[in-house]
């Protein structure tokens, strides 16, 4: 996917595209000295990272407040913050337990003046109320649902980017959780899945 194809899919403005390019530059520079993403994935940034993240917006078009658990390199959180910039009440919380990743996230937030708050700490310990809680490549679903539970108890919907083992992970999670969830095919990779969690309760 090219930048132009991404722009066509998302209707991103010239300003938003410029900010995405700046983010890519900063990510490429930082990744040379700190392992944020696999270096082989950077040439496919627009599909594998940007579009993979941006597709979530179409699943929750009214959502303005998002929490990205284990935000890492900023996927999906920084992409969402860039595309939501300028919308009333938009805010993305970027939560990560590793301080050096938080420093990277904060540098991008500051440089691009994004509607985002970086939080250094454990995801499940944050008292944040959002419309959507999301994550990508953080933990198997049984563990990830534990991180997300406090947000869902406060009214959030769960949207989680998963790989081709999503169905297996969901079955295994059902041993621990009473969960109402749907799986949809990722628009960035037909092998991937998006897990939409509507309700969640720990068994026992």
UniProtKB/TrEMBL annotation:
GO terms for biological process: methylation. It catalyses: guanosine(527) in 16S rRNA + S-adenosyl-L-methionine = N(7)-methylguanosine(527) in 16S rRNA + S-adenosyl-L-homocysteine. InterPro entries: rRNA_ssu_MeTfrase_G, SAM-dependent_MTases_sf. Pfam families: GidB (PF02527). Gene3D superfamilies: Vaccinia Virus protein VP39. It is found in: Cytoplasm. S-adenosyl-L-methionine binds at residues 70, 75, 123-124, 136. GO terms for molecular function: methyltransferase activity. The keyword rRNA processing applies. Belongs to the methyltransferase superfamily. RNA methyltransferase RsmG family. Specifically methylates the N7 position of guanine in position 527 of 16S rRNA. This is Ribosomal RNA small subunit methyltransferase G. It comes from Brevundimonas aurifodinae. The lineage of its organism: Bacteria, Pseudomonadati, Pseudomonadota, Alphaproteobacteria, Caulobacterales. The gene is rsmG.
């Amino acid at each position: 996917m090219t930048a132009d194809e991404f722009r066509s899919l998302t209707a991103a403005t010239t300003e938003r595209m410029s900010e995405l390019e700046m983010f890519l530059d900063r990510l490429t520079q930082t990744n040379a000295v700190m392992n944020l993403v696999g270096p082989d994935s950077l040439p496919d940034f627009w599909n594998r990272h940007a579009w993979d993240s941006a597709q979530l917006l179409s699943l929750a078009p009214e959502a303005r407040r998002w929490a990205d658990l284990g935000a890492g390199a900023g996927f999906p959180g920084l992409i969402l913050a860039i595309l939501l910039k300028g919308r009333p009440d938009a805010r993305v919380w970027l939560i990560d337990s590793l301080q050096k990743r938080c420093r990277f996230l904060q540098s991008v937030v500051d440089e691009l003046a994004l509607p985002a708050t970086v939080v250094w700490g454990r995801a499940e310990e944050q008292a944040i109320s959002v419309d959507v809680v999301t994550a990508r490549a953080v933990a198997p679903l049984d563990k990830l649902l534990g991180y997300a539970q406090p947000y869902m108890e406060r009214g959030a919907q769960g949207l989680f980017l998963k790989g081709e083992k999503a169905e297996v992970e969901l079955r295994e999670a059902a041993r621990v959780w009473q969960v109402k969830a749907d799986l949809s095919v990722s628009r960035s990779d037909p092998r991937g899945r998006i897990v939409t969690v509507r309700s969640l309760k720990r068994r026992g």
